[in-house]
Amino acid sequence: MSTFLQSTDYRMWMLIQEGYSSPSREINGIKTEVAFIEWTFDERDLAQLNAKCLNCFFCALKSEDYMRVSTCKTGKEIWDKLCITYEGTNEVKQSRLNFLLHDYKLFRMKPHESISDMYTRFTQIVTSLHALGKELSNYEKVNKILRCLPSSYDAKITAITESKDLNTYSIDNLLGSLIAYEQGVNQRNLDAGEKKKEKTIALKAHKSDSESSGSESDEVAFITRQFKRFLRKKQRHHQNWRKGKDNKYVKGSSDVVCFDCRKPGHVKADCPTLQDHSSKEKEKGEEKAKSRKDKKKIQRGF
């Protein structure tokens, strides 16, 4: 607002600083306002300048602020009321100043924050301090920016402090140097990330091939196990079949019942009882035949 008033007419700003009062005369020790017709040229010029100042305020302020200052008669009254409204009293100003100084003291660059974003926050604090009357020298601001940087900027900080005079080194040059360094670091990190990504992709491809090869090996091993299991089962079946044939007993045929002896586990053709009986009958037949032959021999002898 001060810039706007100064650009319109700098005398208005001086009138706000010094204040304005209507022309008056002291008669018999009593101060009395003078009629307009008796004003001098300079008094008329100051009155017109005050009216111009009031008009600038009334046209620039929003409706809420206009209602606060509409009864004011001079530009200084309006200015003082606006200062109290937006800046507070001296106690409020001092309190805000203390908070800002605390923020300035603890100011640090945040993780993953760019130099530009950091400087934007820094500027807001410095501007607020300036509005409350706290001026910071160029050395203080440059030194504070260097001290708020993270450890990744240590090499750059050392180079600047050793090669530059911080009393005359401008903020703009400092920012340009830091931004250039930041871009270089980001590019190197980007290149390293790309290389790491390529290695990761290659590792995944190799792992995928290994897993595929391992999967095929597992399938071959599984088929081999199944085939061996089939061979063992076949061999056991053959052995059981041979055992059943030799012993006239078939394993696993407990549900078969012999038609002759009515015992389970075999059929009539393999029945041991029937075979024993047949053997005995055969032996008896052979004995009878032998006895008949012997009798015939005896009869022939007589």
TrEMBL record:
Domain CCHC-type: 258-272
Name listed for the protein in its UniProt record: CCHC-type domain-containing protein
Superkingdom of the source species: Eukaryota
One Pfam family matching this protein: Retrotran_gag_2
PROSITE patterns: ZF_CCHC
Ranges of Basic and acidic residues composition bias in the record: 277-289
Residue ranges the record marks as coiled coil: none
Region: Disordered, residue numbers: 266-302
Compositional bias ranges of the Basic residues kind: 290-302
Signal peptide: none
GO molecular function: nucleic acid binding; zinc ion binding
Keyword annotations from UniProtKB, A to Z: Metal-binding, Zinc, Zinc-finger
Keyword DNA-binding belongs to the record: no
